[in-house]
Design brief:
The complex is a heterodimer of chains A (88) and B (253). Chain A contains two helices and four strands. By secondary structure, chain A is an alpha+beta fold. Chain A has a single domain, classed as Histidine-containing Protein, Chain: A (2-Layer Sandwich), CATH 3.30.1340.30. Chain A has a three-stranded mixed β-sheet. Chain B has one domain: 4-Layer Sandwich (Purple Acid Phosphatase, chain A, domain 2). Chain B contains seven helices and eleven strands. Chain B starts with 5 loop residues before the first strand and ends in a 13-residue tail after the last strand. The chains are: A alpha+beta (88), B alpha/beta (253). Chains A and B meet through β3 and β4 of A and β1, α1 and β11 of B.
Chain lengths: 88, 253
Amino acid sequence: MFNDAAIANKVREAVLLTSGISAQDIVVTVRDRVVTLTGDVDTPEQRTLAEQAAHGVDGVVRVDNQLFVRPGRWPPVEPEILPWYGRH
Amino acid sequence: MARDPVKLATVGDLHWHVDRRRTFHHHFDTVHEVADFLVLPGDLTGSGLPEEARLLAAVLAETRIPVVAVLGNHDVHTEHTREVLAILRGAGVTVLEGGDAVTFTIRGVTVGFCGVKGFGGGFGARCLTPFGETTIKSFIAETKDEAARIAHDLAGLETDLRIVVLHYAPVEETVHGEPRELYPFLGSSLLCDPIDRLGADLVVHGHAHYGAERGQTEAGIPVRNVALPVLQRSYAILEFAPDHLPLRKRKAG
């Protein structure tokens, strides 16, 4: 049988080993075998790797990836041009 | 002569709390280089604590462009609302609560903002109605009251651009992606009624973290869900280019 605490330990280990994220930047919680990842990472790749690593742990049924990529590493902001209809 | 576009930077659901100090400290450092206004549609803080508001206020006080915001449900959670408002306003942030629309002039263009937190109730034919228990009536009465504030403000806002800022969603389209069971708690089409009736150029909101970024009202007014988890970027830049598009008649009020 799978135990949430044991899954959390394995996920934490897998994430830290494969994504290069430091332990202080990520929180792993597990409830009913659903893993939630929270914290802040440096790159979008780390975010994806962490999710993949969590998925790979036996017993995990779903991964809720709430990791934020730190703003300084986010993609450049491109403007969206909206219609401006003006006043009648 | 061509006029420069008006640009908004906007992001909601920062959920600023003590642990995020390091993450967000430089979030808005360069926003003045890319936008004329910074618009924050609610959930500025993690749980509405004055300490959280002070951390955010310290960052926003350094912002070199006008900052317009509404509160979200997280900002009222611990019931320090008056103190949070005072802290943010003390830092120069215009926090809208309804009945307090503001107008700015930028390069000769008048830009009006009105906003409220909003509330839930659901969308379209499935919108909650004031029937049955007192609690249900109170729930939907709050949403209607918020909608009435929007109507009041839009009716009096005579600016070139009119922008509505909400925390809760006014259309279903931008909550798509969330569990359907949550829809009634993510927004209400009652909030949209005055917007379509009185006209606006843009609605921005947050709250629906797993929703969709882009939608529109039945009248075709753009709606943008700019919750940070939806954007996955520092903020959205929304640009109005006045000289390249046809005029539209607003719907009569």
